[in-house]
Design goal:
12 helices, 8-stranded parallel beta barrel, alpha/beta, two-stranded antiparallel ribbon, globular, about 400 residues, TIM Barrel, single chain
Length: about 400
């Protein structure tokens, strides 16, 4: 169970397939751009986030390569990058992971992504049925974990053959970088119990998240293991609840019914992900019933695959909702917002003080101690607070 008296571990998201201010519109959109990703990473490194999730998929930049670039431009930020069993051998992934952990000085986190699109997996040469992918992944990580923890592995399995494999250089973290994973099917949860350190769920209502947590605990207990828990959410935080809901409405104000229908058709046709089906079931493609739990808004999932819900409200309101998740065992949040650079600032400046996260790191003092207020940035500087105010 998460320690609710401890602040959440709060990560941000690098939007490697592009970013924008309006869902379903090209207005004020930002294409995939490595320079922009560096801006976001450097901002969240300074703003007090512990790490970033780098997504994976055919529309995304390759996560290991991008993480290596961002590690060179940041100081403390950790990088949650994807291992996709079947797209490369476990020995090759072990070399990638060890090297990235070494060049980043121990800032690597690993995210197992087995895949929820049979069409995309076929393009990668993976043709296994849904549940069998987890049997394959189990053998994959028998080899991967043995290599990265001990430097050697041997397996003559049904899916993986690795004969006397070796890893020459160990990672910085011991025994290895932490392993994260998200999957909602029974096969995924059974797999998770024997492998992972942290289970991730998409942002479902608290009672549904509590059911998942209980099932993962049971799966881990069968292996004599303990697992911690995180949640993947978008955030729309403003100074008042009213302003936050206005911002949520604005985010989908240029999203047409035709675009929604097209997106939902793609999800239904190309995805066999149980988690994706659970996201769709929250709204069923309808834009008139999007608050699926207090302050949990499913508007993003009308057009975005994967994580499709946002917490919407003032800092106090969102803090209360996050406390509900903490009370059922969540200790980590992987957050995002549109556009990702600006929303990273809003979450840090508005929400972090409310939930006990320190905020910006290594700030240089801006005065000799006299309290001042922002004076508009003119050449005269800031304004001293009037006496008695």
């Amino acid at each position: 169970m998460a320690k609710t008296d401890q602040p959440l571990d709060f990560l941000w998201f690098i939007p490697t397939s592009g970013d924008g201010a309006y869902l379903g519109s090209d207005d004020l959109s930002r294409p995939s751009d490595p320079g922009y990703f560096r801006e976001i990473a450097q901002a969240v490194d300074r703003l007090g986030y512990s790490g970033v999730l780098i997504p994976t998929g055919v529309a995304c930049e390759e996560s290991f390569i991008l993480a290596a670039d961002l590690a060179a431009h940041t100081q403390q930020l950790k990088f949650l990058v994807a291992i996709r069993p079947g797209t490369a051998s476990p020995a090759y992934y072990a070399r990638l992971a060890s090297t990235l952990d070494r060049v980043s000085n121990g800032r690597l986190l690993l995210n197992i992504v087995v895949g929820g699109s049979a069409q995309e997996l076929a393009g990668d040469g993976v043709f296994l049925p849904h549940d069998e992918r987890y049997d394959h992944a189990d053998e994959f990580f028998q080899v991967f974990n043995s290599l990265i923890e001990t430097g050697h592995a041997h397996l003559d399995g049904k899916y993986i053959q690795a004969h006397h494999a070796r890893l020459g250089l160990p990672p910085v973290q011991t025994p290895r970088p932490p392993i994260y994973f998200g999957g909602s099917s029974d096969a995924a949860i059974d797999f998770s119990g024997g492998i992972i350190d942290k289970y991730l769920t998409w942002g479902e209502p608290p009672h549904l998240v509590a059911e998942k947590i209980a099932n993962v605990h049971k799966a881990a207990a069968k292996h004599g293991r303990e697992v911690t828990f995180g949640i993947r959410l978008h955030f729309i935080v403003r100074e008042t609840d009213e302003e936050a809901w206005e911002a949520a409405d604005k985010l989908i104000s240029k999203l047409s019914d035709e675009t929604i229908a097209a997106a939902q058709e793609v999800f239904a046709k190309n995805s066999d992900s149980v988690g994706q089906a659970r996201m769709v079931a929250l709204h069923n493609g309808r834009r008139d019933k999007l608050e699926v739990s207090p302050n949990l808004w499913a508007g993003i999932g009308l057009v975005r695959s994967g994580a499709g819900t946002a917490l919407v409200g003032s800092p106090k309101t969102i803090a209360a909702r996050l406390k509900e998740y903490q009370d059922i065992g969540i200790d980590t949040v992987i957050a995002s917002g549109y556009p990702h650079l600006e929303e990273a600032y809003r979450v840090s400046e508005l929400l972090f003080p409310e939930i006990g996260i320190a905020g910006p790191r290594n700030q240089i003092r801006s005065s000799f101690g006299t309290k001042q207020v922002f004076g508009g940035g003119g050449h005269g500087g800031n304004v001293k607070v009037a006496s008695g105010s």
